[in-house]
Amino acid sequence: MHxxxxxxxxxxxxxxxxxxxxxxxxxxxxxxxxxxxxxxxSLTTLELRQRVAALQQVLAARGxxxxxxxxxxxxxxxxxxxxxxxxxxxxxxxxxxxTKLRGPGLDYPxxxxxPDLVVGDAEFRALLAQGAAGQLPYLDIGDLHQAALAxxxxxxxxxxxxxxxxxxxxxxxxxxxxxxxxxxxxxxLRIASEAVLQVADxxxxxxxxxxxxxxxxxxxQMLLIPFLADVRLSVVQRFSxxxxxxxxxxxQATQLHYLGGIIDILMQQPAEQWPVQxxxxxxxxxxxxxxxxxAIEARFGCPLRECYGMTECSSFATLNRTGKPGSIGRxxxxxxxxxxxxxxxxxxxxxxxxxxLSSEVEGVFLPGYLDNPExxxxxxxxxxxxxxxxxxxxxxxxxxxxxxxxxxxRVRGENVSAWEVERVFSGHPxxxxxxxxxxxxxxxxxxxxxxxxxxxxxxPDWPVLLEWARSRCxxxxxxxxxxxxxxxxxxxxxxxxxxxLPRDLGGAWDHRG
Length: 513
Known about the structure:
- The protein is α/β, with parallel strands linked by helices.
- The protein is 26% helix and 24% strand.
């Protein structure tokens, strides 16, 4: 038996999990099959193949070669999907840029990754020209595809990149420092996609709705699914509560990936906005609390399959297969999991410990963070991945996620580094010092509260400060709550003692009124 076959049974190659050959083979068969649709428009295999091949020829004509980097700042579209396939098949490294980033947060991945080409939607052209991206070669996605029309007879090319070669670099904000570029390999994407089939309980004939931004692993990992199983991927521009049920009906969606509070949003809709019947069979994702578990299953009429993971471990680490309310389940068979205390020793049943992963399967974990050996050595130690996330295990061996040990927050499906938020607000002349912390949210995981020590003589005008920050922060990085403090308690190394800051909302200004 192939060493991977017991875990990943779909189209195993002779010696490794592959990505580019899988896409290439899939685009050469079943010309009239429809594997993907975008906003209701079907894309046949033949159309995909012709568009991908033409785009490959345009990229090659620009002198781009395997291993070079292409940064992509695009909303969900069939044009972006075609571009991603072209990049993967050409051996180019895809640098997805979150379209919500602004200011220093937007400049950073361009400064750090130094891409050889930037591709953006026309709506972002002026924004990109203002910052670090403005110093790099740039193309509108529309112009790129217009140029591809000149090559209708182009042949599909395959650069069979090594399984451990970088497929993309995904920037994640998980700690107190600058964003880290996760080097995500071809094998890691294949493992993530194979895991989706298990997490979402995918069966032949299923219709999967993809609303997640493709700049996240949650969206990117879906792009291999139509080449791994007899399913259709129905892609929409974004999640919209008002359009959701109509989109589900049109796509005949059988699975829903919940993330970033979308379940909470749908649960708050009046009953009359829900269809009498729907075809959803499985809800899968992360973030459902024990208190809401039964109500959600009853309202949707289908089971929850809660999981846990992170980009660094090929997206998935655990899955709740039994339906135990509130649990993230147990590790996937290709992973081993320990909960370790501050002393590095395993904790007892019911005790809080850091999730530490190991695997006998080669290439499950990131090879490292891009040009960040310090972060790499902190996360990867003696073959194990230290996640920085905390959990408890019950007597049955089931895990319950508690939170993040690192100085970050989870806001509407996004990891938000407190360092990134504080860096922006500290640049305002009113602000002497500030500290961002996570507080409980009614929708999604957390909201951000910003504690601000103002310069002497300054009276807080929170709406003005918020408006100043809008052009410098992603929308999910903007704190919801603001509180003034006279001073912060500091450690001997001059760090703010955040554990002493109150998490109640008393005296805080809420920008949502």
